């Protein structure tokens, strides 16, 4: 009976140890600090963090404000990619097109925050 109890406790400890090892958060590219893009092309920026098991990825403005979708201007995809669509000069908004953003990854291991990334739209180049 004691042997069965000890084996059961040992197997539970091993299972918990495996869970701790396989649960993690990590940065894919923590060195990214600045992205400049053409207003005529737009940009897609994956969140530079991830996790195992799957992490929930969210984007924020540097001030900590949640990012919300602006139809045909800014969208956060389910996979954590921030997309800024091409836009005309009259649609320029410095809060969206010239600001610092960061993303977070969160799962059972906790939550990590990427460094701030300055995203800036440039003028469309004409030849």
From TrEMBL:
InterPro entries: Ig-like_dom_sf (IPR036179), Ig-like_fold (IPR013783)
UniProt signal peptide: 1-17
Keywords: Signal
Domain of life: Eukaryota
Keyword presence, Transmembrane helix: no
Coiled-coil region(s): none
SUPFAM superfamilies attached to this UniProt entry: Immunoglobulin (SSF48726)
Protein name, per record: Down syndrome cell adhesion molecule-like protein 1
Organism expressing this protein natively: Characodon lateralis
Organism lineage: Eukaryota, Metazoa, Chordata, Craniata, Vertebrata
Gene that encodes it: DSCAML1_2
